[in-house]
Amino acid sequence: MTIRLKKLIIREIKLTLREPFTISSGTMIQRRILLLELFDAAGVSTWSECVADNAPNYSPETVDTARTIISKWIAPRLLGYEFEDPAAIQREINRDIRGHNMAKAAVEMGCWSLEALHQGKPLADLLGGTQSKIVTGISIGIQANPAALVDRARAAFAEGYPKIKIKIKPGKDLAYLGAVREELGPGAQLMADANNAYTTADFDHLCKIDEFGLLMLEQPLDWEDVFRHATLQKRMKTPICLDESITGLDRAEDMIQLAAGKIINIKPGRVGGFCQSLAIHDLARTNGIPVWCGGMLESGIGRAYNVALASLPNFTLPGDLSPSARYWKRDVVDPEWTMDAQGLVTVPRDQPGLGINPDRDFIEKLTVRTEIFK
Ligand code: OSB
Ligand code: MG
């Protein structure tokens, strides 16, 4: 069945995190989230989420650039036209539009959900997912002091998270990681994420991280860099995982060819959607590179896409796919996302499409702006 969009609603909601989330480049507390509603000419509709944030401190995109790109450049190319499949949509969206992967992904992934509904399949099945439960991790923001981080980390393990990711930056790294390792013991799965906070001048310092036995160190260097990560990886025992700089299949190939990292964090929003995510997954698998699904503090709608993707076979490391309650007092889906005592999130497979129910009344209450395109 072909995909033919007849209407697109772009809505901005305000959703407040339970607590501030601090990474090396800034703090998030009040999230502005774009939710899309896509309507197909066949009478099917679905929701999707754009992972761009208010500020351009993770990628150059923001909520405002994404809204402009979707409304001015993407929607007019799709509305009323017929496409064979999500891959055809992806080609059309990428034709002479550079960058803006998060804007592109929000639309492209929505079309995958429509396709799943057309075929009467859960999204995870359409993508080729093989896992029924995903191992979950928690990403803990930068804390005021090591003791505060230790408290958070201990509580997270007690809740059942099998993996803890610790945000770091210069001045808030070695003592913090050391304190957590000391408290939780040598068996705990720990990793760190620097979100580009270091430079080539820090290599000696970064090598000291090796002593903490981390599962990986995520994106220590520049958000666009691959080459310098290769130099660092040669000196470090700890596997480097790239996040920011893997913006598509070619960058993943660069990482592998240059040995700039041993693990890839796939965020479908960062790479422009599922077509690219699947291609990166497959390339990594062929090359013996494990992948895991990162998060962007998504609402329950974006989470459904991440969970479906993470069900693919080479997602062998715990994902940043925490349950709704870790982020929000109340999520925009009903029921909310949960995690069992073993730290597993279940891939929804009991209905076609996303397998979640957006809470329309609640979403209405959170909405600050709506635009309709036909
Ligand atoms: O680098 O993975 C990151 C959140 C915002 C921006 C960047 C990152 C993150 C996270 C959050 O680590 C992970 C989650 O959604 O739980
Ligand atoms: Mg990261």
CATH class of the largest domain: Alpha Beta
Percentage of residues in strands: 15-25%
> Could you tell me how far the N terminus lies from the C terminus, measured between alpha carbons in angstroms?
21 Å
Backbone shape: globular
Q: What pattern of helices and strands is seen along the backbone? A: EEEHHHHEEHEHEHEHEHEHHEHHEHE
The main sheet comes to: 7 strands, parallel
**Bound molecule kinds, no repeats:** 2-succinylbenzoate, magnesium ion
Average pLDDT taken over every residue: 98
Category by helix and strand content: alpha/beta
Oligomeric grouping of the chains = single chain
The assigned CATH architecture of the largest domain is: Alpha-Beta Barrel
| DSSP strand count | 13
What is the number of independent domains? 2
Helix content: 25-40%
Radius of gyration: 20 Å
- The residue ranges in which pLDDT falls below 50 over 5 or more consecutive positions are none
- The fourth-level CATH homologous superfamily of the largest domain is Enolase-like C-terminal domain
For the biggest β-sheet, the strand order reads: 5-6-7-8-9-10-11
